[in-house]
Amino acid sequence: MKGQLFLIPTPLAEETHQKVIAPSVIDTVRNIRHFICENSRTARRFVSSLKVHPSIEVLTFDVLNKDSKPESLPFLFAPILQGEDMALMSDAGCPGVADPGALAVAFAHENNIKVVPLVGPSSLLLALMASGLNGQQFAFHGYLPIDTQQAIASIKRLEHESREKNQTQIFIETPYRNNALMTHLLRSLRGDTRLCVAVNLTSQEERIESKDISQWNKQAIQFDKVPAVFLFLANS
Amino acid sequence: MKGQLFLIPTPLAEETHQKVIAPSVIDTVRNIRHFICENSRTARRFVSSLKVHPSIEVLTFDVLNKDSKPESLPFLFAPILQGEDMALMSDAGCPGVADPGALAVAFAHENNIKVVPLVGPSSLLLALMASGLNGQQFAFHGYLPIDTQQAIASIKRLEHESREKNQTQIFIETPYRNNALMTHLLRSLRGDTRLCVAVNLTSQEERIESKDISQWNKQAIQFDKVPAVFLFLANS
To answer: How many CB pairs under 8 A join A and B?
Structure first.
């Protein structure tokens, strides 16, 4: 009899687990001894913060990150194949969304291991909810290209698609490049395209602004080094 | 001084609020007297279930649904414009995602009302996490066309796009049409396209299956009258 794979969301911001973590997550972590995580330091800290294990020394935290190879999966899954439940955790937010966790989930399905997703924070979803943009049709594109010309071409293509499909476009950026991305967006998008930027979600410093490019252009931009989600919807 | 608009997620399945609702939702609802909701019956029942108000008779529940007109918004927002915090609630899941709530959120941004999204259940996000499909690029398309020929054309177009962009395609269906949609999917998609169906999420009857079309074709399909999310990823 195989164990089950629980997908455990983790907090997006420091010191928020008591606000954002649902009871089922705490009850599940209590019964898990083996964790597959994107980052073992943040995973240990999160599990410790829940105070459901007398000691975390007896727990195992194995890493599955963007550099992991599919060949490592049978080793990572050894406990579950022997009947123990396991948990998959992202560095922040929901495993399998904007992180490398899908590799483990796909392996579970291929091996007839039951997958149980638990409710928790997702910066993409919170940003979409709070954007006021179309939540009936939307697409997440990950990161835009780093090269300036390619980034601008990509923004214009996504704006065209947004107008054609009435689709909200969602993407993220490495925090130190946020301001460069904002410059590209403000220069490339049409004045009546609506842009939302959501930063520091769930934290005391949360800030969510959603307005037309023509309005964004009237203010100074400062999103340096903060976790941000960008969303836009073209006026159709 | 205006109030704030809190976006309150609600449970997806009966009798699950004690498992899936985060503490910040309970703490917020405690301090809210005016609710804008998609369905006043389910909203009242959810707020009652939290047991944070001595009586729900003193609370107001005003409806914003797919038939609501933008002209009704100033009336709905009267309390917030007078300084009271308000909450926006979907029938099930997260307001503003696959529901008409974005209209209210957009109104809030236009009127400089602070929008605060809270963490909670989303069937789309849980299905994506649990699918093992690509969570780094994905798109939600709402409902496919009802007409059979149009539905099939739409499925083939989405499969082509999925292959081109390595994008997971996500959509939903009215429960009594699930089996018809499955028939279209199994007949239209390629054998090596991976399809995930996630039904009754967060409930005791939760069932999540993710496999190639060629494998789906070997089993009987029975998803009649259950809430379901459909996701597929073409083999590139």
So the answer is: 167
Query: Which two structure tokens, joined as six digits, stand for A171?
Result: 């993407």
Question: pLDDT tens, A3-47?
Answer: 999 999 999 999 999 999 999 999 999 999 999 999 999 999 999
Q: Which DSSP symbol is given to B117?
A: E
Residue A88 contacts residue A103 (beta carbons within 8 Å): no
pTM exceeds 0.90 for this model: yes
CA dihedral of A24, A228, B163, A104, whole degrees rounded to 10: -40
Residues A113 and A128 grouped into a single domain: no
CA A148 to chain centre: 24
Please calculate the CA angle B31-B36-B37 and round it to the nearest 5 degrees. Answer: 115
Same domain, B60 and B81: yes
Residues of A in contact with B131 (CB under 8 A): 96, 102, 105
Helices (H), A143-212: 148-165, 178-188
The phi, psi pair for B37, rounded to 5°, reads -135, 155
Residue carrying the six token digits 């910066």: A123
Rounded to a whole number, what is the largest CA-CA distance in chain B?
62
CA distance B57 to chain A (A): 28
Give the domain-ending residue among A117, A135, A156: A117
Please give the Cα distance from A115 to A106 (Å, whole number).
10
pLDDT, averaged per 10 consecutive residues of chain A (236 residues), comes to 97 95 97 97 96 94 94 96 97 94 97 98 98 98 96 98 98 95 96 98 97 95 92 95
Beta strands in chain B (DSSP E): 5-8, 34-37, 60-63, 86-89, 115-117, 138-143, 168-172, 194-199, 207-212, 228-233
Residues 6+ apart with CB under 8 A from A147: none
Assess whether B71 and B146 both reside in one domain.
no
Q: At what angle do helices A40-50 and A23-30 cross, to 10 degrees?
A: 100
**Which of chain B's residues have a Cβ under 8 Å away from the Cβ of A7?**
129-130
Q: Which helix (H) or strand (E) holds A197?
A: strand A194-199
Over residues B110-167, the pLDDT tens digits come to 999 999 999 999 999 999 999 999 999 999 999 999 999 999 999 999 999 999 999 9
- What is the DSSP code string of A94-113? -TTSSSTTHHHHHHHHHTT-
**A201–B131 C-beta distance less than 8 A:** no
Distance between the two ends of chain A, CA-based, in angstroms?
A: 54
Domain ranges, residue A223:
123-233
Coil, strand or helix: which one is A230? Answer: strand
**Would the CB atoms of A96 and B129 count as touching at under 8 Å?**
yes
Of the residues A102, A117, A132, the one at which a domain ends: A117
pLDDT of amino acid A221: 83
For A167, counting Cβ atoms within 10 Å of its Cβ (0-12 exposed, 13-18 middle, 19+ buried), the class is buried
